[in-house]
Amino acid sequence: MKAVLFDLDGTIIDSEWFYYKGWKAVLEEYSIVLDSHTWLTSFAGKTERQAFVVLQEQFGFNEDAETFFERKKTRIAQQYTEEDVSLMPGVTELITYLHERGITMAVVTSSLRPVTEFNLTKHGLINYFETLVTRSDVTYPKPSPEPYELCVKRLGIDKSDCLVLEDSVTGATAAAAAGLTCFGVQSHEEIRSDLSVDRLFVDLHEVLEFFKTGQPFVK
After folding, report:
1. How many angstroms separate the Cα of 129 from the Cα of each of 10, 99, 186?
2. Model confidence over 100-147: pLDDT tens digits?
């Protein structure tokens, strides 16, 4: 492998619970209770538009989309002033390891570019990545292969030399559709059982150990 393509939410940053709290709080204003299991299995890894469709289909949610998004945006912005979004376990060690070996790295995410840049900059990681492919850069987000296709095109590296790290079914589906090798990194059993990936790991510490003892990278 010559390049590692990272998902962002739930892979680099521990943002799934952060966003869950925001969505949960806003939905309570509409008398809807969103439990963590449903969030993980039905919402995680999706864009806000895709998640809104889930609300409509699973909860019969018929409220105005733009009003809901504005309330959700305000709530999330408030949370950012109250707490930090932490890094996932092992991500700093893994990125350092890959950087020291000259491996190209990129981020492919369904988050918007301003949010992506904010979180990566806050943790001092943005300069490690050759390119960022965000929701702002594509017409069709994950599970479409478009984000990964665009990333590979930007890097100019053969698909056979790229490895994807994903935590969600949506992301793994996108990677597979793009014809890329994908490692799943997920500790929640309810999601792990649904991930169709080439290898499955509990966390990035396990991925790092595999890199150290498994097949070496090609520079």
Report:
1. 17, 9, 22
2. 999 999 999 999 999 999 999 999 999 999 999 999 999 999 999 999
Spatial CA neighbour of 111 closest among 18, 48, 39, 186:
48
The 8-class DSSP code of residue 135 comes to G
Contact 152, 142 (CB under 8 A): no
How many CB atoms neighbour CB 56 within 10 A?
12
Q: What is the dihedral sign for C-alpha 137, 170, 144, 105? A: positive
- Asked whether 49 and 112 are in contact (CB, 8 A), the reply is no
Structure token digits, residue 22: 């925001």
Our measurement of the distance from residue 125's CA atom to the centroid of its chain's CA atoms, rounded to an integer in Å, reads 15
For residues 132 and 110, the answer to whether their CB atoms sit within 8 Å is: no
